[in-house]
Amino acid sequence: MSRNEIEQKIRDLKTRLSCQESDIGDWKVAKCMEYSTLGLEAPYDFQELHEKRQAVRNEIDALEAELKIAPISEEEIA
């Protein structure tokens, strides 16, 4: 995978964590916290949501580590 592809994948994963349309977006975390604060049962399985979000963060970390050692291509230099 090229540096550009790695960087794009990282951007895509970060967007997945924050996007309103994402099944694991920040909005679901906020909604769970809102319900919890009101003493209500969370509308989503918070443990499952956390595990899915953590898996994405782990993938981002792995890609960022890969990016640090990925060679710079000729076209990226130009």
TrEMBL record:
Keywords, A to Z, come to:
Coiled coil
Q: Coiled-coil segments, which residues? A: 3-66
Instruction: Indicate yes or no for the key word Coiled coil.
Output: yes
Record-given protein name? Coil containing protein
The record lists the organism as Blautia obeum
